[in-house]
Design a protein that fits this description.
about 80 residues; alpha+beta
């Protein structure tokens, strides 16, 4: 795992989805998030998927929103 902290490696979540369930899907009963991180120059992207460890869609939406906000608040400190 390396931390992205160079001048050109500041990452944001690429959020092109619409609707209240964007970035979410259900797999085996649990809700998962799929996000694409894009660097500020737009020339590199990284996809990450992981379980939100809940079967409740409302809880999944709250967790998704917190994850996206945390990533966008800590652009240069994301370990990938």
């Amino acid at each position: 795992m390396r931390t992205m902290n160079t001048e050109t490696d500041y990452w944001n979540v690429c959020d092109k989805g619409v609707g209240k369930n964007r970035n979410l899907w259900r797999n085996g009963g649990a809700w998962w998030i799929s996000i694409t991180l894009v660097n500020e120059l737009g020339n590199r992207s990284i996809r990450r998927r992981f379980s939100l460890k809940t079967r409740d869609i409302e809880v999944a939406r709250v967790r998704r929103d917190k994850i996206i906000a945390a990533i966008n608040d800590h652009k240069g400190e994301i370990a990938i």
